[in-house]
Amino acid sequence: MRLRNIKGSREIIADSDYVVHEETLQKGKWHSLFGNDAPIYVEIGMGKGQFLMALAKANPRKNFVGIEKYSSVLLRAIEKQQEEALPNLKFIRMDAEYITDVFGPGEAAGIYLNFSDPWPKDRHAKRRLTSRQFLKRYEQILAEDGIVQFKTDNQALFAFSLEELKEGGWTLLCCTKDLHQDKILCEGNIMTEYEERFSSMGNPICMMRMKPAETAVSLKEKSDEK
Ligand code: SAM
Q1: Sorting pLDDT into bands at 50, 70 and 90, what band is 24?
Q2: Domain assignment present for 69
Q3: C-alpha to C-alpha distance for 145 and 111, rounded to whole angstroms
Q4: Residue 159 falls inside a structural domain
Q5: Domain of 13?
Q6: Pocket test for ligand 1, best of 69, 92, 199 (most atoms within 8 A of CB)
Q7: Are strands 171-176 and 89-93 parallel, antiparallel or unpaired?
Q8: Of 153, 159, 147, nearest to 215 (Cα)?
Q9: What is the pLDDT of residues 115-128, one digit of tens each?
């Protein structure tokens, strides 16, 4: 992403009602923040928010939270949300490494990872959003039947992710290396900005859905039963 240093972006974000700020960020309180009990879906690394905004518009009875690390990128999502004013969509500017500080056990009904940065060097593997380190974080916040959906055109990152989910004891629910040619899995697919870009270049899009063996919620239920 190029837009790293737009002047004033931090100030605009600080003033935006669509962004959940540190003072109001309280894990375990997301439903009261949205003012309803509807499930909450999270996109990590949402970029300019094209995918999440379309999803939130199409699903007014669900809540959505977009996480983005860079202010200047998040700013673009805020600008679109100022026009749309979708009540079921909020943003956070943060590094997803700290996601368990923000969401409590079971608060995320699902997690979307779209065209996550590949971090090609081996020594950076733990920064990949599908690394075992990140999968552990997702286990802490996913609801009992919560899943992670991952899309990418990067074959190496996709292969790495399949290995990591096995290593972490996750279950692969479905998987394709050419989503746009798969009539069943592509049904209802919402294209992300990067998906449009890469598929127009002829790159096949890979997609997988996966779920953890245990979540923090299911582990707690088991220990309460004893
Ligand atoms: N998901 C969008 C799409 O598919 O069009 C954007 C994809 S872009 C390649 C990846 C985005 O993830 C960038 O905006 C980047 O800043 C963000 N990102 C990468 N690592 C992140 C992290 N650890 N926490 C939050 N955002 C992150």
Answers
A1: confident
A2: yes
A3: 12
A4: yes
A5: 9-225
A6: 69
A7: unpaired
A8: 147
A9: 999 999 999 999 99
| Assigned domain for 175 exists | yes
Active-site annotation holder among 15, 37, 101, 117: 117
Query: For residue 43, what are the β-bridge partners?
Result: 66, 112
pLDDT in tens, 171-196: 999 999 999 999 999 999 999 999 99
What's the CA gap between 99 and 95, in Å, rounded? 8
68, 192 in Cβ contact below 8 A? no
CATH number at residue 190: 3.40.50.150
User: Where do runs of H (alpha helix) occur along 26-154?
Assistant: 30-34, 50-58, 71-84, 132-141
pLDDT of residue 219: 86
CB 95 near ligand 1, within 6 Å = yes
Q: Is the CB of 148 under 6 A from ligand 1?
A: no
Residue 54 CA, ligand 1 centroid: distance in Å:
17
How many folded domains does the chain comprise? Answer: 1
CB 138 within 8 A of CB 111: yes
Which of 129, 152, 203 has most ligand 1 atoms within 8 Å of its beta carbon, as the pocket-test mutant?
Answer: 129
Within a domain: 21:
yes
Distance, CA 221 to ligand 1 centroid (Å)?
Answer: 33
